[in-house]
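<goal> How does this chain fold?
<sample>
Here is the protein in question

***
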Amino acid sequence: MITTSWYDGLLYALYQEVFFRYNSALFFLNLFYMMNILSIDCSGAHSGVALLSHGVVTEMTSQASRSHASELLQLLEALLRKAGLPLKDVDCFAYACGPGGYTGLRVAAALIEGLHLVHECPIVNISSLQALAYAAFRQEQIASVSVVRHAYGDNVYTGGYKRDDKIAEANVQAQMMTVKAFSQLLTLKKTNNSTDHLLLPKSAAQSSPQKKCAVLSADMELIQSHCSPSNGWDLLEITQKHLAEEVGYMAEPYVKEGAQTQGEASCRPYYLKNASDWLKK
């Protein structure tokens, strides 16, 4: 006859065995499971949507510039038809939250919020500067990179990133400045065996004589007009019109590791400028 203590011990041992096997199975399923991630980028002049499904990327780009409000929904519908995937099978929504164009960021955020309210999928926000750095790392085998994007007028957004196994990790805070000030940063010289560069970590700036600055093709003319390759700097051109594909790739590890954010509060665009900057003068 089994006593109560032995019986409880047996049940506890069985519980531990089942719990261990269940969690192990979930771990390996999560490791090899290919998710369907829908990503959007409206931070620049062109809208872009991409679907990462079972390791295959399908993407579409708006034909007209600055047509986010009129074309984004049509692009999304066309993308899902092309991929043959119903919206209900999407596992995650991701979007470039900025910095970028004011209208484009709001349109993308509003669409992501609406999709989340209906389908309750996880939402992942990806910095547009971080996505640009990720594009540079996919294009070239470099350890770190500075990025620059046109903001408005003679202002640019810029930041510094280093290569990571899964994402582009920020190591210099994103900031906005005039393109003239940015060009002056690129021409600063090393002093006292250190570096005055604000866009790269000291170790990278000291170890690599050829420092990279990633620029979208649409912004190359503006940047080149103010920044000439000097003191070891090289402008790295990123040719695509949008970064929706990079946003999707960067969202995947966040979701698998359970670090995603959910709900309306997560869909807040990152403008990187004061509210007064939007006022017409």
Q: What stands out?
A: The first strand starts at residue 36 and ends at 41. The beta strands are 36-41, 48-53, 56-61, 92-98, 123-127, 144-150, 155-163, 168-178, 211-216, 233-238. The radius of gyration is 23 Å.
